[in-house]
Structures are given as structure tokens and as C-alpha cells.
Specification:
Length: 125
């Protein structure tokens, strides 16, 4: 099984939104073969708590424009690791320190990555 077309569309929108707020190390994984509850993960980093929150706000705004509404949001108060669950995709926005410590890429490295468009930049990557 692979991520649905809708999931890939949401991944692209979320990655572009994160990129607009200068998120770094943006990556997307197709986790549909490993998890029954979602098709894809988007992971992005912010250099401080304020930037993490700005990235989250932009992702939510852009996905809302596509008609997507979050089912659940966690970690927003701390601003260190915010998880936004849209059903089809889960967006993880992490402070760089949390990203390094939890190393989600290592946990999901056996899953295929979802190619992101060329306009998704990842400064410092």
C-alpha cells in the first residue's frame, strides 16, 4: 500500500508551509505500510520555540485552505515538539534539539520518502 493522492497533496502543502517559515530539514515519509492510522509523516525543524510555533501556525493555515482540519494537536504549549494529526498525515514540528534527540528519521528510515517539490527549501540542511 502507498500513501493516497490526498495524503501526498497534504504533505506537499504542509512542507511548503513549513518552508515558508524557514523550517529546516523538511522530510516526508510514506508510513502507510507500517501504520494503519495514517499514510504519511512530515517532519520539520525550528531553531527556537517561537519559530516552531510560527511553523505550526503556517502549516495549519495552509492545510485549512485545502479543507483539512486537525483531528488532534499535541505539544503546542511547550513549543518543543508539536504533533498535528490530520488523519491522512501527521505533521511533526520539532525544536532542533528534540529532533536530534528523538531521531524520528532513524525510526522510520525503512519507509520510503515522499519526494518534495523543488520550491520546498530547507536552509541549513
Amino acid at each position: 500500500m502507498t500513501a493516497t493522492e490526498r495524503a501526498v497533496e497534504l504533505v506537499t502543502t504542509a512542507a511548503r508551509a513549513a518552508s515558508e517559515k524557514l523550517a529546516t530539514d523538511i522530510i516526508a515519509f510514506d508510513v502507510s505500510d507500517q501504520l494503519a492510522i495514517t499514510d504519511a509523516f512530515v517532519i520539520a525543524s525550528g531553531s527556537n520555540d517561537r519559530q516552531v510555533k510560527a511553523i505550526v501556525d503556517e502549516v495549519e493555515d495552509k492545510l485549512r485552505e485545502t479543507g483539512a482540519k486537525p483531528i488532534r494537536r499535541e505539544g503546542e504549549r511547550d513549543g518543543r515538539w508539536v504533533l498535528i494529526d490530520y488523519g491522512d498525515i501527521v505533521v511533526h514540528v520539532q525544536h532542533e534539539e528534540e529532533r536530534e534527540f528523538y531521531a524520528l528519521e532513524r525510526l522510520w528510515r525503512d519507509c520510503p520518502t515522499i519526494p518534495l517539490p523543488a520550491d520546498v527549501t530547507s536552509p541549513g540542511a
